[in-house]
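Hi U.,

Before I forget, here's the chain from the pilot set. I'm dumping it here mostly so it's searchable later in email.
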Amino acid sequence: MSTARILVVGNGGREHALAWRLTHEGHEVLAAPGRDGYGDDARCVPVHAGDSDAAAALVRRARDEGVDLVVVGPEQPLCDGLADRLRDAGLPTVGPGAAAAELEGSKAAAKRFMAMHGIPTARHETVTTLDEGLRALERFEAAPVVKADGLAAGKGVTVASTHDEARAALVQCLEGGAFGAAGRTVVLEERLRGQEVSLFVLTDGTGAATFLPAQDHKRLGEGDTGPNTGGMGAYAPAPIYDAAVAERVRTRIVGPTLAGLRAEGRPFRGVLFVGLMIDDAGEPWVIEYNCRFGDPEVQPLLFGLSVPLLPRLADAAHGMLRDEALPGDPAATVVLAAAGYPGEVRTGDRIEGLSALEGDPDVKVFHAGTRREGDGWATAGGRVLGVCARGTTLGEALDRAHAAAGRVRFDGRQLRRDIGARAR
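Structure:
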């Protein structure tokens, strides 16, 4: 494919991974707004929208730059209808419209969709008041998972061990206002048991190109302890996702999901994330949907991908995508998080050791929460860096990622040393 100019919307580790991949394939990448840490992987372009219309500003920027394709990274602008605005302006776009993005924007709506289309998921109840929630809680024999309905940056889920923990989470959402409007409706659902798998499907609404199955690590602490985060590390492929599981997911989940959205007049054009639980019998259940690439899973997926990405993105944007399982080398990412994350984050700590990783073709550092400080870098967010590595085997990729992550240091650094332990 000839050289293309692509606009990637966002400024986190996910967008850095997308920018790196597309630049690596020989294309010109603009990131709006991006961040300094993207370096030569993208040209960062400001979007000055004032307080009025960020979507209109992005449309103008895309037109002014003459881009061939727009890839929207974060969920909030997708749920707000950015992809609709871009398509209405005649700009080829990877990302679902607002109607399809509701699968992530509202967990209650996603549960209704799954029930209507026979997609396997956990038993659940949706509540809007504390009294309703407490009554519903009594109907769960084991402590349920408590989920804020709306977008909460990956932090609106409490995997309760006891009914008291679930009760506290309900109070926090429905009376404490912990997640604002996102927590005014709450979904309680039966806790599924097994191994989680992150499946990403690039689709034009009908055709589906499926990435390697990945496994994320949501809890802050080793051994899956501590609070939920946006993700402390990931690897691909996940060994539990064998050919039999893949066929069940294709026929029972991915196919019915895409068909259901088409039948409802809201075809999904972009990257559909299906969060799966694979039980001990190898049966897949849907935990949740997202409407975009997940971070950090996108990092090993794109770093290890062994076929070009851009032709598939373009085909998805133009309604020409064919069914395909996208191959890739094993890869893994270890996230380095700032002091205080996922709570009140401390910023401004100087980062050391990044230069030691330069020049290794099998290691790449993706910037998520950094800022330039003099001749170096400092922390500027919760998840600071994703240290990614690939190998000929998953074990080799994991070893490289952990070793590389250990060479990067800053005060208060948090990381998990057990990323990928289940796969060894």
